[in-house]
């Protein structure tokens, strides 16, 4: 959580991005088992690769830069970008990021659980 002082002297509280990611990941894990999550991640990655091939760039941001450069240099065909497909690509990348975070947390929890259930190691005397 971050705080700042407002114009009227009051304190403004804002949740940290880390806590929002962890909360979203926890929500995903409460609804989707890790094995199914792995499958979904595989599908999301395929979808992202498909968008990369469709648009010829690695990310939506690169597409924006490429289109701007085309307009500024007056080169290229200035073909209209399918805004719905672009928004879907952004959403897919976001969903993939949260799914990866959730799977990482699930894997980390497994190690914590495994470590807490294993008997303590005997220390040499």
From TrEMBL:
<dbReference type="Pfam" id="PF24033">
    <property type="entry name" value="DUF7342"/>
</dbReference>
<protein>
    <recommendedName>
        <fullName>Transcriptional regulator</fullName>
    </recommendedName>
</protein>
<dbReference type="InterPro" id="IPR055766">
    <property type="entry name" value="DUF7342"/>
</dbReference>
């Amino acid at each position: 959580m971050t705080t700042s002082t407002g114009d009227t002297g009051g304190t403004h509280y804002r949740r940290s991005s880390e806590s929002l990611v962890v909360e979203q990941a926890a929500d995903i894990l409460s609804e989707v088992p890790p094995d199914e999550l792995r499958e979904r991640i595989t599908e999301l990655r395929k979808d992202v690769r498909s968008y990369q091939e469709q648009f010829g760039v690695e990310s939506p941001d690169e597409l924006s830069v490429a289109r701007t450069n085309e307009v500024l240099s007056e080169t290229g065909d200035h073909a209209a970008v399918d805004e719905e497909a672009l928004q879907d690509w952004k959403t897919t990348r976001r969903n993939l990021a949260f799914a990866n975070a959730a799977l990482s947390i699930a894997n980390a929890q497994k190690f914590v659980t495994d470590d807490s259930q294993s008997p303590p190691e005997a220390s040499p005397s």
